Amino acid sequence: MKILEHRALRGPNYYSRYLTIFMRLDIEALEERPSDQVPGIARRLKDLMPGIYEHRCSVGELGGFLQRVERGTYAGHMVEHVAIELQNMIGFSVGYGKTVDSYETGVYNVVYRYRDEATGLAAGVEAVDIVQKLYDGETVDLDPVIARLKAVREAHMLGPSTAAIVEAATARGIPYYRLSEETSYIQLGHGHKQRRFQATVTDGTGIIGHGIADDKDWTKQILGDAGIPVPLGRICHSFEDAVAAAEEIGYPLATKPLVGNHGRGVSTDINDEKALREGYDAALARYETVVVEQFVRGEDHRLLVIGGKLVAAARRRPAHVVGNGSSTLKELIDAENADPRRGVGHENLLTQIHIDEQTERLVSQADLTMDSVIDKDAIVWLKSTANLSTGGTATDLTDDVHPEVKYAAERIARLIGLDIIGIDLLAETLTRPLEEQSAGVVEVNAGPGFRMHIAPTHGQGRDVGKHVVDMLFGENEVDNGRVPIVAITGTNGKTTTTRLVSHLLRTAGRKVGMACTGTIEIDNHVIMRGDYSGPQAASVVLKEPVVENAVLEVARGGILRRGLGFDQCDVGILLNIASDHLGERDIHTLDELARCKTVVVDAVSPEGTCVLNADDPRVLDQGTRWSRGKIVYFTMDPEFEPVKNHVAEHGIAFTVRDGKIVMRQGAVEATVIEVNDVPITFEGHAPFNVQNAMAAAAAGYALGLTLGDIKMGLQTFHPTPGQLPGRVNYVEADGVRCLIDYGHNVPALKALAPLVQSLGQKKRIAVASAPGNRRDEDLRALGSQIASMHDALFICEPDPRGRTPGEAASLLKAGADAEANCRSEIVLDEYGAVEKAMDAASEGDLLVLLVDDIESAIERLKGRTFRNPVPAAE
User: Fold this and answer.
1) What CATH number does the domain located at 729-862 have?
2) Which residues belong to the signal peptide in this entry (predicted)?
3) Does residue 79 register a pLDDT over 50?
4) How far apart are CA 466 and CA 450, in angstroms?
5) What's the pLDDT tens digit per position in 655-706?
């Protein structure tokens, strides 16, 4: 088998609303061997992966997929299910998958859900190898496969603290973006509502408070001055300083690096100069300055304060083992590490205990070795500090915190100035005020770990991630961090409608992020130029901190390659379905193209609005079928029965009556604007832009604009290169009219024909091209359509797109030559073709430039002098 394509679809897509992996798989010779021709393959698969019995598949019952294998299915279908089960085996719960054949024999499109993108892709590769071996009768060793996938998971998965916040946000409907694969830098929400954090440090964490927490001596000075109990201590720059500090403070002592975290380099219960030397060196290895301080006897506690409130408390104990009277210390450690709750790093609830210099020092101080047999019930401490990252354990004590201890913790958060703070407190108990016992705050942590609170070794886990989300977005759970998203798709008119919706919103005073074919614009400033009608552009807009509304053009290619790039939208506009790009990426029919386009309306939130062109039969049929949320129709025919019925049921529709765009609902009809007052309609001679105007008006109304706002926006949006570059731009130069447009398919040109007819009273001269990735028949049909509208045609070819130079132009000319009334000529260079067209034009003629380089064409028009027409011979 051979993987032809393999990528993640990041959002609703042609196959699913879920995040899915797409694999285009050529099963080659296995096309001739369905699974029922491979004896015992179902049994071997079940023995290898017992969990695959849970896969119901289309049968709809346990063991359903295995029944399919026994009856006979294809290798691609098996790859789908194996990829799903591999992810389940390493802790990612996924279930959705689909395998469909393509237009190529033996080639299948395999899709399956993922939680982590890198792991999902890796699972697909492993699945292909496993299924191939099952077909070939080879032995499959699953252990190294699982190990490799776990390694990928560990390299890419979020840490437990970050994941807890993300999960809490997701549960509240707040979207998130991972802003860096290397770090846990996360954006919650969109645009101006977004909040960002890394691990447990938020964009609201005070930099001064962070600096205080990072400096243990500064922390103690601030807390001590405020009456908070802290251990006596000194900063030491040499071992001689440490010895002097020990003499001044008195044993027992603790040593730690001045700047550090996770208990690294910390030594406790130091009782002599030899141990002091070891502790000093351990701290010095972590930071150049060492703190020597009084060792406070008591249990190690962590108090977690979020948003000024104590939300969790835990007692931590260092890594240790308990003797049984027969096992050696090494055997006890190995047995503890065999606990399934212990894993590598943050893999599991607990961390493996590693024997290091600190462990060896503690064991030596206890007069033990690794071969010592430990007495029954005797405790051997293996680490000085109680951090979970070094193998420690935690017990939840949140419900046992005395009110005075709670107040002290919340006061410490205010004194240090941190929105999220972990307070390390040595105390005999949390059930009594600190002044009534031996107690002291040994340090505070900016960006504290949450694992001990989320999943303590003993006691109740606390949903501390929710407290962070409530702090960032408010506790009422109304704010989901989203800005309204308008997504616009269709075969033609996407860019015009995108720009028009953006203009309506900006005119009404909103800060808009817009992405379309041509640019990405933020608050009316162009920040990127190019084709930005895909998911990457959506991501750029939604990450921009000032954006209040996002307006996104969505092209077919982006949907198929990567999905939408957002999980849902508030308004989805489906303009039309017409022949274009057929034959690409297994989209060969208009019904398949319609299903691709309806991904946009299928992604509308249940509270959102789908805006549908009722004049297009496929939009009316499939768009209505796949739409979620409310439906608003637009139509040029005010008497169209389906729309009249929709309005009668108090649905909303926009239509044209008596030369006016009107909104109808129930018995109400409200005038929006005279068609003649909408510049892009060319006084109604551009009916396609009347439709685009109605679609934009419907979107604006769905987003809360008044009819007055909509009218103002429509009448101030002009078909100029400044407001609508390359889309029906009208320019006059020295008596010659010029229409510049980007139409590159037959439906677009048919829609443009009435306007060309109305403007061109004398000769109509065109320059046109088409991307080479269209089908031969599409290129010939396009040439014929252009020629039927013009008297002269100059054909250029700026982008062959995989064809040999001149091939696409020749196909266009072949179609044009079928029209006897048009003279056609190939001039491959676009610049040269425009020059020839201008040379052929006289005063009163119409130039129609269907070109890519719009700015160059306009500049040349402005400086051009056209000749007077030659009088006809009498």
Assistant:
1) 3.90.190.20
2) none
3) yes
4) 12
5) 999 999 999 999 999 999 999 999 999 999 999 999 999 999 999 999 999 9
Q: What is the dihedral of CA 449, 455, 461, 466, to 10 degrees?
A: 50
pLDDT digits (tens, 9 = 90+) for 738-767: 999 888 889 899 999 999 999 877 999 999
Query: Which residues, listed in sequence order, are joined to residue 573 by a DSSP beta bridge?
Result: 488, 611
Tokens of 713: 């926006």
Cross-strand pairs, 846: 737, 764
pLDDT of residue 873: 44
| DSSP secondary structure of 110-133 | EEEE-SSHHHHHHHHHHHHHHHHH
Tokens representing residue 502 in the block:
């953006």
3-state SS assignment for residue 862: helix
Q: Name the pLDDT band for 867 (thresholds 50, 70, 90).
A: low
Q: Show the DSSP H helices in 49-199 as ranges.
A: 64-71, 75-89, 117-136, 142-156, 160-171
348 pLDDT band (50/70/90 cuts)?
A: low
- Domain boundaries for CATH 3.90.190.20 within the chain: 729-862
Phi, psi of 178 (to 5 degrees): -90, 115
Q: Which CATH number fits domain 485-715: 3.30.870.10, 3.30.70.360, 3.40.1190.10, 3.40.190.10?
A: 3.40.1190.10
The DSSP line for 344-401 is STTSSSEEPPP--HHHHHHHHHTT--TTPBPPTT-EEE--SS--GGGT-EEEE-GGG-
Q: Where in the chain is the domain with CATH 3.40.1190.10?
A: 485-715
- The tally of CA atoms less than 13 A away on the side-chain side of residue 109 is 18
Domain 232-294 has CATH 3.30.1490.20: yes
Helix (H) or strand (E) holding 276: helix 273-284
Structure token pair of residue 637: 């025919």
Estimate to the nearest angstrom the gap between the alpha carbon of 85 and the chain centroid: 24
Looking at every residue in the chain, the average pLDDT score rounds to 92
Residue 836's Cβ-count burial label (10 Å; 0-12, 13-18, 19+) is middle
- The partner residues of 526 in beta bridges, in order of sequence, read 521
Q: Which two tokens stand for residue 708?
A: 């007055």
Q: How far is CA 59 from the centre of its chain?
A: 33
Residue ranges of the chain that CATH labels 3.30.1490.20: 232-294
